[in-house]
Amino acid sequence: MDNQELAAYFDHTLLKPDLQATQIVQLCEEAKHYCFAAVCIPPCYVAQAATLLAGTSIVVATVIGFPFGYQKPEIKMAEAKAAISDGARELDVVINLSALLSENYAYVSDEIHQLTSLAHSYNIRVKWIIESGLLSKQLVQRCCAIAASAGVDFVKTATGYIGPGASVEQVQLLRQCLPANIAIKASGGIRSRQQAQALIDAGASRLGSSSAVAILNQPT
After folding, report:
1. Hey, what CATH class is 3-216 in?
2. What is the H or E stretch that residue 50 is in?
């Protein structure tokens, strides 16, 4: 896979708590240079990125409930509405992992149904981050069933803040459990071209990484 093809899989990501506004400018310039699929940035920088990327095909994505997902649903809804108003076109929504592990499946389902319905009413895509590396196979299957019911656009493996990074095994399991119309975003610890290719081969349609530029500059 050449650089142009590989770049189209990447959400060029910058979610460090100590980032500065000038780094958002650099991120967007890199996204335009390499033709990445999207930039994934904190909500407070969505309006800036939307202005910087106006007139391009590069999507502005942001995170909701990041990084631990245990905000109340109405807070996540407010975050989503503000991000959409600022120009976000994809929302990476963190699961309430605590509710899931507490077997409060109705809470988890209601929350993602509400957020997905809101986003889709504005023609905005939703990526649901489930921290698959921390879950049993049975819980991954349950999350996939909820995702299918809610109609999310992507299931995303991880935030990259807790648990293991993306793995081929996680992506393969998600692909087995999800209907064909729901895509997979692999995220967390993707740092090499070989790893990126393996995740794509396993079924990932999108890759989230802060190392996208370095990966593209690695030898083929």
Report:
1. alpha beta
2. helix 46-52
